[in-house]
Amino acid sequence: MIMNPAQLEWFKQAWPGPLVRSTSWFFSFGEILHFIGLCLLLGSLLVIDLRLMGFFKKLSVRSVLSFLPYTLFGFLLNAVSGWIFFTSNPASYIENPAFLLKMGLIALAGVNALAFTLLEHRRMLLIGPGEDTPALSKALAASSLLLWFGVLLLGRWLPIFTVGTN
């Protein structure tokens, strides 16, 4: 077990955990938020990463990077709704191998995004329509898509590997 019982109880009592468990609609509301966030996150990343990988060369990289605020907003919606899910029953998540791997992939996706921001973002703003991106940008974009679609797949696997329901 990664957390001791006192830590799990703290998360279980953290807001909005008690509200989620005492209402019939709050968890479903979280699922709606999660779906919207997922659409924004993956939809915008798909356009950005595919352009960085060399597709849609008629578009400037600067124009597709303008989708980044939607990516960030989608991520924030997923973080908030993920917190709703986690506080509803932390034990069932913390003991779930799909959840643990999903969190690991999200952390790696964050490192990947940081690497892109620090190493490539400024250079990418100068790439116009028809121009190709460097190998590092292509590799970071491909990694981004693989990581985020891995997160999506693991999210679908969460119910399969759920161990506890207390």
TrEMBL record:
* Pfam families referenced in this protein's UniProt entry, alphabetically: DUF6644 (PF20349)
Please name the source species.
Alsobacter ponti
Write out the transmembrane intervals.
32-52, 64-86, 98-119, 139-158
Annotated DUF6644 domain ranges read: 26-158
The alphabetical list of record keywords is:
Membrane, Transmembrane, Transmembrane helix
Q: What is this protein called?
A: DUF6644 domain-containing protein
